[in-house]
């Protein structure tokens, strides 16, 4: 019985995972290839006519190819935000780990507050308006950096604690300046956690719905998640095109997660095991 128990547990886990993750994706795929009338029933039945290409073209052509603009905006915001997050959080994590000062406690409290406290939307909008950053891409980039900086910094700080201080001291004896120690000695060693941070933050920022909705209104600033409004309204909804849009929005992050799954796990566990 003991030898069979792991197989039973594994089988139950696989069935549970299939129900939670695979079945919803299959449902979306089926609805995305149906006609408007068939998709409105929201059933699991196969379509009479497979309209994959027709629905795909209709989604891209909707509102004068708005989905292409949304992909560009989301990609731009994601790349810029993640680039700043990687450099800034790595530097802050390095300073907090290596330099023990009274300010470290203050910084640590600020990081935990950033993780636990919900964002104040109305004051943030007012601040962005005062700075002239409301309804702008670079304002949205700064918002994403601010909201995700705490998690990234704690991730780097945990991993940097596994790097021996002897490397810093050896570089310092050789005449390296503080910025050279970080960029030439420490940063190359942060590759595992950097890959993890890039993948996790890229998926989160690319899939973000609420922040662009609050801080980035306007048709010219649309992101991929906001294009879901194109096919639903108060009086009618085109569920076949809506699910096709969901499919197109879901596939890029899904591909990234599948290919970098091992790197995510390795980066998350490296600092925890050694720290």
UniProtKB/TrEMBL annotation:
<comment type="subunit">
    <text>The complex is composed of two ATP-binding proteins (UgpC), two transmembrane proteins (UgpA and UgpE) and a solute-binding protein (UgpB).</text>
</comment>
<feature type="transmembrane region" description="Helical">
    <location>
        <begin position="181"/>
        <end position="206"/>
    </location>
</feature>
<keyword id="KW-0813">Transport</keyword>
<dbReference type="GO" id="GO:0055085">
    <property type="term" value="P:transmembrane transport"/>
</dbReference>
<keyword id="KW-0997">Cell inner membrane</keyword>
<feature type="domain" description="ABC transmembrane type-1">
    <location>
        <begin position="71"/>
        <end position="260"/>
    </location>
</feature>
<protein>
    <recommendedName>
        <fullName>sn-glycerol-3-phosphate transport system permease protein UgpE</fullName>
    </recommendedName>
</protein>
<comment type="function">
    <text>Part of the ABC transporter complex UgpBAEC involved in sn-glycerol-3-phosphate (G3P) import. Probably responsible for the translocation of the substrate across the membrane.</text>
</comment>
<feature type="transmembrane region" description="Helical">
    <location>
        <begin position="140"/>
        <end position="160"/>
    </location>
</feature>
<keyword id="KW-1133">Transmembrane helix</keyword>
<feature type="transmembrane region" description="Helical">
    <location>
        <begin position="239"/>
        <end position="260"/>
    </location>
</feature>
<keyword id="KW-0472">Membrane</keyword>
<keyword id="KW-0812">Transmembrane</keyword>
<feature type="transmembrane region" description="Helical">
    <location>
        <begin position="70"/>
        <end position="94"/>
    </location>
</feature>
<dbReference type="GO" id="GO:0005886">
    <property type="term" value="C:plasma membrane"/>
</dbReference>
<comment type="similarity">
    <text>Belongs to the binding-protein-dependent transport system permease family.</text>
</comment>
<keyword id="KW-1003">Cell membrane</keyword>
<feature type="transmembrane region" description="Helical">
    <location>
        <begin position="12"/>
        <end position="33"/>
    </location>
</feature>
<feature type="transmembrane region" description="Helical">
    <location>
        <begin position="106"/>
        <end position="128"/>
    </location>
</feature>
<dbReference type="Pfam" id="PF00528">
    <property type="entry name" value="BPD_transp_1"/>
</dbReference>
<dbReference type="InterPro" id="IPR035906">
    <property type="entry name" value="MetI-like_sf"/>
</dbReference>
<dbReference type="InterPro" id="IPR000515">
    <property type="entry name" value="MetI-like"/>
</dbReference>
């Amino acid at each position: 019985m003991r030898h069979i128990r792991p197989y039973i547990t594994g089988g139950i886990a696989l069935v549970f995972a299939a129900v939670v993750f695979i079945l919803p994706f299959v449902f979306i795929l089926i609805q995305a290839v149906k006609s408007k009338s068939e998709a409105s029933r929201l059933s699991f039945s196969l379509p009479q006519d497979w309209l994959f290409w027709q629905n795909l073209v209709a989604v891209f052509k909707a509102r004068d190819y708005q989905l292409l603009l949304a992909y560009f905006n989301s990609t731009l915001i994601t790349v810029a935000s993640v680039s700043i997050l990687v450099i800034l959080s790595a530097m802050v994590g390095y300073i907090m780990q290596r330099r023990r000062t009274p300010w470290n406690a203050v910084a640590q409290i600020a990081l935990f507050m950033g993780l636990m406290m919900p964002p104040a939307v109305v004051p943030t909008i007012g601040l962005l308006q005062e700075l002239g950053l409301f309804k702008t891409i670079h304002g949205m980039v700064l918002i994403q950096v601010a909201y995700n900086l705490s998690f990234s910094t704690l991730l780097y700080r945990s991993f940097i604690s596994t790097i021996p201080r002897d490397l810093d001291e050896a570089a310092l004896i050789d005449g390296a300046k503080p910025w050279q120690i970080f960029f030439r000695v420490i940063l190359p060693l942060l590759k595992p956690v950097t890959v993890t941070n890039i993948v996790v933050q890229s998926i989160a920022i690319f899939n973000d719905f609420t922040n662009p909705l609050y801080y980035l209104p306007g048709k010219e600033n649309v992101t991929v998640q906001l294009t879901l409004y194109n096919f639903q309204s108060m009086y009618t909804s085109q569920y076949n095109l809506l699910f096709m849009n969901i499919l197109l929005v879901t596939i890029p992050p899904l591909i990234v997660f599948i290919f970098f799954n091992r790197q995510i796990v390795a980066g998350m566990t490296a600092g925890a095991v050694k720290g």
